[in-house]
Amino acid sequence: MKFKLLIVYIVGLCTSAQAQVQHAFNVKVNAPSATIEPTMWGVFFEDINLGADGGIYAELVKNRSFEFYKPMMGWTVRQKHFTEGAVLVTNRKAENTANPRYIQVTVNNAAKGDLGLVNEGFRGMGIKKDLRYDFSVMYHLPQSGIQLHVELVDSLGNILGGTSVTPAPTGEGWQKAVASFTANATVLKATMRIWFEGNGIIDMDMISLFPADTWKNRPGGMRADMVQMLADMKPGFIRFPGGCIVEGFDLSTRYQWKKTIGPIEERQLIINRWNAEFAHRPTPDYFQTFGLGFFEYFQLAEDIGAAPLPILNCGMACQFNSAEVVPLKEIDPYVQDALDLIEFANGDTSSTWGSVRAYMGHPASFNLTMMGVGNENWGPQYLERLKVFTAAIKAKYPKIKIVNSSGTDPDGERFDLLNTELRSMHADIIDEHYYRKPEWFFANARRYDNYPRNSSKIFGGEYAAQSDHTVSVNNKNCWLTALSEAAFMTGLERNADVVSMASYAPLFAHVDGWQWTPDLIWVNNLQSYGTPDYYVQKLYALNKGTNAVPLTMNDEVVAGQDSLYATAAIDATTHELIVKLVNASDKLQSNTLMLEGVKKLAATAKLTVLQSDDLFSVNTFETPTKVAPQEREMVVKGKQIIVSTAPYSFTVLRVKIL
User: Any idea where the Alpha-L-arabinofuranosidase C-terminal domain is (predicted)?
Assistant: First the structure.
């Protein structure tokens, strides 16, 4: 309760003596002040918190190609009678640098149950009753004589479904065996067993298991419920692949997009930089298989109607870690990667990289219009590398807009240097990040009111209110954090002529495998739910409009007076007025919207309200919609609309203009 009162004091929430429950807002419906870009509200994806492997990428087998630094991590060998060397890890680096390791299994007159392998999955395997599961394995077998028995089991050893595979001899090469079966029960944390029967020696690699219900039912695809959470937001863009993933701990672990395309078995796994980033949340089994690679990212953006925004390494590793940089005289390959990516996304099928895209199944362009150079990089060393990238990209692709880093913080010497220099360079878009406590978000609702109107645009690329402090394991996605973000976002929309894009970060977190909190969407092996912050982002994205219009109280924008925050927009395509109201006080407040420039309104309006009396309320797997939007209709009479806003609420009003 003391903390609650402190927050109330800091952000200026109303006290009983000061409460003003009646307010009059002037809304100039016929005076659009800024165009709201289609990209205004988007999503930021990074492979953190088991976001890709173990998350949105639906592969259930961990370390399927034995390329982790401990080759058998995730696997256990089962033997009824121990035989030395029954399972060996073999390295063929000279002939396959992308995927050198495989296992060799020697089977000596074995019956089912004598010799086997168990894979634990990513914190277990989420299995659904009556769903088909597709097993596959790359193998080399000189002669017949071995049968594989594949089965899923729960923690008690109950078999949940399985199949048998009899591999055919392969000669000198490798082949792929596939089989499918249906599960007979739903289990949150199952494991997979492979029993060997017969005689012979078999080499195995890329041992895989996928559920059939992937997004759009694509074999080897993405987890449908997680993608649906994104599609439901109708984001204007998706930024990928991060984030600090782009930089790497050092340049050897940076993200290299060319290694993430092509056949899955030829994509080169690397350690995930979040593997050992935080001593308080070690994740030694966190790697990037790149089953979710740049082709899949572009495809995902297309699927959910979002503009793709790839971010590329600028020749600098994470400055908080190694701070390694590539010398300027050696920067050309990094720049060429950027130019080649544009060709991969947009080039015709006769071009080098456009033909690769077409070979992968997408001859049409992905319509890339923007890309980022560097992530949270700063200092003179960033600026000098950025200038090289900018010159090369603009020379060949002048219409591509470049997203430029302003560092890690929204103020301070680093920010001031970059903000000044980037504007002098006439940068297209400047990426600002803000991980701050809720009071910062309330206090900064007017941050962009005095930014220059005809200069570089702003991308609020990463933001999230921290209920405790940045990098704290105690951060919660509570209603207070979401409410403060809703208040801050009124200022982003009001200044849509300055701010062209914004996205919360990070996006996903696995409840058993996270490194960072807070996060927008939480998942386990079977379920996903949106936080209160998710519903704020979703309401803004679904109620975006096409043009901001002035909304004032006593001739001032509404940004904290009596703990109210407000913005208004029109949607020229649907002929609607959209008003967003945040009541950050503990009082019910009545707000009269006096509309100018309107002849007639529809008889009813739609109200969507996100509210909780408890600022520290959170959603959970048990109560996933504890804080979730509620919709209702209200009667409209004349050109004045009275909207009552509940304590601690975010309200969206939509009304048709006739």
Answer: 461-649
Note the Cα 71 to chain centre separation in Å.
29
Q: How far apart are CA 458 and CA 399, in angstroms?
A: 18
Whether residue 211 contacts residue 58, with contact meaning beta carbons closer than 8 Å, is answered with: yes
Q: Does domain 75-211 have CATH number 2.60.120.260?
A: yes
Q: Catalytic residue at 151?
A: no
* Secondary structure (3-state) at 79: strand
pLDDT-derived band of residue 171, with 50, 70 and 90 as boundaries?
confident
- Contact status, residue 36 vs residue 569, Cβ threshold 8 Å: yes
Q: DSSP secondary structure string, 522-589? A: EE-SS-EEE-HHHHHHHHHHHT--SEEE-EEETTEE-BSGGGEEEEEEEETTTTEEEEEEEE-SSS-E
Tens digits of residue pLDDT in 8-26: 434 444 443 344 479 999 9
* Topology of domain 2-34+548-657, CATH: Immunoglobulin-like (2.60.40)
Mean pLDDT on 649-655: 98
Domain boundaries, the chain: 2-34+548-657, 43-52+224-543, 75-211
Whether the model pTM is above 0.85: yes
- Give me the sign of the Cα torsion angle 184, 185, 186, 188: negative
Determine which one of 197, 247, 277, 376 is catalytic.
376
* SS3 label, residue 190: strand
290 closest CA partner among 103, 101, 98:
98
- In this structure, are strands 237-240 and 43-44 parallel, antiparallel, or unpaired? parallel
Amino acid found at 494: R
Q: 332 pLDDT exceeds 90? A: yes
Q: What is d(CA 372, CA 251) in angstroms, rounded to the nearest whole number?
A: 17
C-beta neighbour count of 63 within 10 angstroms: 23
Q: What span, in angstroms and rounded, lies between the C-alpha atoms of 165 and 184?
A: 19
| Residues 105 and 87 sit within 8 Å (Cβ to Cβ) | yes
If we measure between CA atoms, which residue out of 561, 563, 595 comes closest to residue 582?
A: 563
Q: Please give the Cα distance from 82 to 78 (Å, whole number).
A: 9
Residue 444 and residue 487 in contact, taking contact as beta carbons nearer than 8 Å: no
